[in-house]
């Protein structure tokens, strides 16, 4: 039977895999064993998979966790906007769950060359219900030159928190590729943050993405306290969810109400904290024990900040249609323990 006809039959036998406006609904049409790309290819690219506007390098994928089988199913679909120098190179993606003692990774090779390669491969990871939210899916995109050298273009981190997995059900996800920061690791670690200010909505958006090199135990519970201050008045304080490790991924959005006339008098304070794992995490302010401060970052206008932190604030104001992302070094806080 010709391959094209075989694929058509596969599609007809699985009507529960169908496209909808703006998303792809994915039912149970996933392999529950090893990768079989010849049997489990996704259909030709539907118009609903259209990538978001802009020229940022992005990865398109789908992820679904099956609790009964304790399996994470990841479908790599395509990449977009690769640099021009990648036009004639092969493209591959390496997948790995982190943290993990297993250094082996899964690998998918693009079915065509170019700046918008397609993969259409599916992988299955066995992850228990009890530990799934402790892992992050790491997907690294490489181009392969004529000398067979693998050149890293960037990577995507997808935390396997239950909230993220629930939002991903039945949808095609587009994620911007990260590139390694050229910012040296500070004594207390670094933190990556995205900012946006909407003058129309009078809303300041803070996305706490991740941190690295924190001075705490590898299995420590970590949260970020984000505070909005105007002059000397503390206006509002919010917390991210608690995650673990010295290189935690948060990917959490927090919003604050801020009037345009207050922009020159306001600042953001982000304090990374090691929290008590035995205390409640839903309402951090009710913790029985005082959290341990791991480092502090202040972003704001000239009244509060200089250097990268001042530049980040000004760029946020000038680019109201974007989430402006930057890495920052953490500094010490007044109540930081001497041992850190």
UniProtKB/TrEMBL annotation:
Domain of life: Eukaryota
InterPro entries linked: C2_dom, C2_domain_sf
Domain C2: 55-173, 187-314
SUPFAM superfamilies: C2 domain (Calcium/lipid-binding domain, CaLB)
Database matches in SMART domains: C2 (SM00239)
Family the UniProt entry places it in: Belongs to the synaptotagmin family.
A family per Pfam: C2
Stated name of the protein: Synaptotagmin-15
Cellular component annotations (GO), alphabetically ordered: exocytic vesicle; plasma membrane
Membrane-traversing stretches: none
A Gene Ontology molecular function term of the record: SNARE binding
An annotated GO BP: calcium-ion regulated exocytosis
